[in-house]
Amino acid sequence: MSHDAEAYGVYLHVPFCRQRCDYCAFVTYTNRDQDIDAYVDGVLRELDEQDRPATSVFFGGGTPSMLPAHVMERLIAAIAVHPGAEITMEVNPEDVTEDYLHAVHDAGITRVSVGIQSTAPHVLKSLGRIHRAEGARELAELIDGVGFSSWSMDLILGTVGERDEDVRETLATVLDHDAAPPHLSAYLLTPERATPLGKDPLRHPSEETLADRYLLLNQELERRHYGWYEISNFSRDGHECRHNQLYWAQGDYLGVGPGAHGHLRGRRSWRIANLDTWLERSARHEDTEAGCEIVEEASARFERAALMLRTRVGVPAAWLADADELSEFVSITGDRAILTPQGRLMADEIARRLEPTS
Amino acid sequence: MAAQKSNTALEIAKIRNFSIISHVDHGKSTLSDRILEITGAVDARQMRAQYLDSMDIERERGITIKAQNVRVSFEGHTLHLIDTPGHVDFGYEVSRSLAACEGAVLLVDASQGIQAQTLANCYQALENDLEIVACMNKIDLPAADPARCAAEIENVLGIPADQVLSISAKTGEGVPELLRAIIERVPAPEGDPDAPLQALIFDSSFDQYRGVISSVRVMNGTLRSDEKVRFMQANKTHEIEEIGARTPTPVPLPAIGPGEVGYLIAGIKTVGDARSGETVTTATGGATEALTGYRDPKPMVFCGLYPIDGDDLPDMRDALDKLKLNDASVTFEPESSHALGFGFRCGFLGLLHMEIVKERLEREFNLDLIATAPSVVYHAYLTDGSMQVIDNPVELPESTKLDHIDEPMLSITILSPSDYTGTIMDLCQSRRAEMTKMEYLSPERVELVYAIPLAEVVMDFFDALKSRTKGYASLDYEPTDYQTSQLVRVDILINHTPVDAFSTIVHRSSAEYYGRRMAERLKELIPQQMFEVPIQAAIGGRVIARETVRARRKDVLAKCYGGDITRKRKLLEKQKEGKKRMKNLGRVEVPQEAFVAALKLED
What we know:
Chain A has helices spanning 36-47, 69-78, 98-107, 121-127, 136-146, 164-175, 207-223, 242-248, 275-283, 297-309, 341-345, 347-352, and strands at 8-14, 16-17, 29-30, 54-61, 81-91, 111-117, 150-157, 183-188, 227-230, 233-235, 252-256, 261-264, 267-271, 289-294, 315-316, 330-333, 336-339. Chain A has 358 residues and is α/β, with parallel strands linked by helices. In chain B, strand 33 and strand 34 form a beta hairpin.
C-alpha cells in the first residue's frame, strides 16, 4: 500500500436514488431530482476547500449514475487532479447504457464500480433491488468495451434464501468470460438497525451462513486468480482501488456532499447528513461541517493497526501477543501477521487483540 | 426501681428469671412487648412494636438474632425476662440464655399447635431443669383451637392441660395472670452472696460508643462496679466501667447480687473476648472453678464471599472486622478465586446465619456480594492415616491420596400435619436421610426424626420442605456426629481449566446431576469465543458431563471505508476495553457477570 505523502483523495457523495434498497443505511433520498442543481452548487462550493490536486476521486452514493453525464462532466472539471489520477464512480446496472458510459469516460472517469449484487433473481428480489438478473455478462461486455482503466463489480453474500449454488453461479456468470471485471467487491450482508432489513430478524443471515459463504467466495476467487487485498475486496494484479487503499492507510481526503466524511492529518470530520439542512446551509454559504474529532496519538495508532490488519499488508507480528496461538487466523510471513480466510471472518476480534507499538 | 439505689442487692426470694421459648412467629416478641407495657417499664406511647428486637433485619424477618434481657417489676417482685434467639442456628446462644433462668414460658400458637422448635426448645429447657409455664397465644384469633392445643401440650410434653394458660399477647388478655403464674411456679434463684463471684455471660453485643456490653447472670457472690474482674475461659482481666440493669433503659448499679441479671461494660473491644458461656469472677480472691457448659461455637457452614466490584475489597474487610465485633461466631479469612477475584472464606453457624451475615454486610456496609455454594466441614482421611479438615472443596486432596471422607451428620426433627407424611418421607429419602423415629403426636400431627448429612440440609432442604408441606411442617436440627460417605469432588472445567468457584463436594449419586446442570448453565452464560470452548464436569480425571460453547464464526464488519473509520475505531476501542475486564480462564474470556449469574442461579 502506498504511503506516498502526495496521495490525496476526494470523496463525493451523491445522495439520490431511484428507490431505496432495504438493506441500505447510507445517506440517500428518492424523488429529489428537482434538488440536483442546488446540490451541484453546494458540491462546487465545498470543492473550494480542496487545497492540492487529488491522486484519486470517488463518486459514491446513493446512486451517482442518477446524475446526467453533463453534470458529471461539470463536477469532474471542478476537481483538480494529478495526471494519472484514479477517478471512480459507482453505477447502477439499470443506468448503464453505452452512451452514458462513453460520456462519463470522456468526462474523465477512469474506473466504474457496478453494483449487481447477485445474478440469482430470488436473491435480488429479497434484497429489494430493481434491476433484472439477466444480462450480467452483456453488461460486463458493454463496460469492458468502453475503455476504462479498470472496473469492478459489487456482490452481496448471505441473503436469506441464497444457496451456495447461487454464489457459485453468480461468480461463474460474472467472471468466466473474456470481459470479466478485473476487480470484485463482495460484502457479507449486514443488517443495519435503521433499515427495513435490520428490523426484520427473520431475514438476518446467521453467522454460520455468512462464514460459509465467505469461505466459498475466497476459494472460488483464489481459483480464478483474483487476489484478496482487503476483507471484502479482490482483484487482478494492479487493479486494486487506490482510493480505498488511501482510506486504509490513514491518508488525507476531502469529503464532499451530505454526510461525507473527510480526513486531514489526524482530523476526521463529517458533513451535515440531512439533505435539506445541507442544502439550506450551503445556499447561505455557511459551513456544512457537522462534527469533527482530533484523533489522539494512541487512538490513531490503534486505528492504523486495525485498518492495516484488514488488508493484505497485515500488521507486524509483534503487535499480536498471542500470534502463535492464532495460527488458524493469521499466517506469519516474515515479521508480519496476515489474516487467513478464517481470520478475515474474525478480523474485529483479532483487531481487539492488537497492541501496536508504533 | 427506687430500692435498687442502695448498695444492697435485691432480696433473692423476690427474683424470678425466665425466658420465653416458642417457635418462630408464635408471638414471643409481642408477648415481650406486652410485658414491658403491663409492668410499666415502657410507656405505651413509646412502645415500639417488638421493642427488644433492635436490629433492622430482626424486625423485618420477625426473628430475634441477638438476645436482649430486661428487668421489670411486678407486684413486689423483680422479673428478669431473658429474650432468647429464635432460630436453630443460634442454639448455643439459646442454651446459655436458658442457663441464666430458673423458668421458661412455653408459648404455643393456639391455632398452629406444637412445632419443631417448640419441642426442641422445650426439651432444652427441661434439660436445664427449668420450670415450664405453658401458655397458648393468639386465643383472640378465630382459627385458635385452645382445647386441641392444650391436649397436644399434655400429650407431647406431659404438662397437664388444666395448667396451660391462655393469653393474647396482642391484646394483653391473660398476660397479668401469666406474670402471676411465673411468680408462683418459677422458683426463686439460689446463690451465696458471700461466695467468690461466679457470673455467667450469656450474651454480648457491641456498641460503638461503649464497646462490648455483656449480659450477665450472677450465680454466686456479688459483682461490684469498683472491682477488677477476670474472664476465666479467656483468662483475661478487665477493669469494670459500668454495671447495671436494663429496665429496659440502662440503669447503672453499684452491685449485682446472686440471682440477678444485668449488664457489664469493661472496656472490651470485641465480643469475641466476652463470649456467651464465659464465667466472670473477681481478679483477686475469685472463684477457682468456672461455670460449666462453655463452648466455643464452631462454624458449620462455609462459603466464599466476594465483592462483585473488586475495588470494594478493603471496605469488605473493614465491614467483616466490624461485624465480628458484634458476632463472634462468624469466621473469615482471605481467599482468592480465579473466577471471582479476591474475597473471604467465611464460616457460619448455619444457613440462616450465613444469609443474615451476607445481608447485613450488604445493607449496613453498602456492599454488593456474591456467595459461592455453601460447603460443610469434611474430614478427609488420607492413605497415610492422617486426617485433614476440609471447609473448602478446592482443598480436598486428589483421590489417589484419599482413603475416605467423613461428613457431618444432623438429627433433624420434623413436625407436620400427618397428611404430608408421604411427601416428607420422599424428600428425606432423596436427601440420603435415614428415619430414626416416627411418632403421631395426635391423629393429625406426626413427628419424624431423621439422621441426615448436613450437606443435604444446606442445599435448600428447608425450602423444599416448606413447599412440599405448604409451609405447615416445621424443622429443628441438632448436629450429631461424622459418618463416612461416598463423597466426591466435582470440578467444573472451562477449556480444560478448573474453575475454583464451582468445585463442590457431593455424594457420588448426585455428582452427575450437579455436573450436568452446571455445565448446561455455563454454556448459556459463557459468550462465544474464537475457539470452541469445552465445558466439562469431572471427578478427578473422569469427565461426567460435557457441553460445548461453539466458536464464533464471523466477527467482522464487511465495509470499512472513509465514513466508517471513526465509528469503527470507537466501537473496537470500547470492546477492547471490555475485554480487559474479562476473566481469563484457559484462554477463554468470561465476563465476571457470567460467574455471578451461574452462582446466583444456584441459590
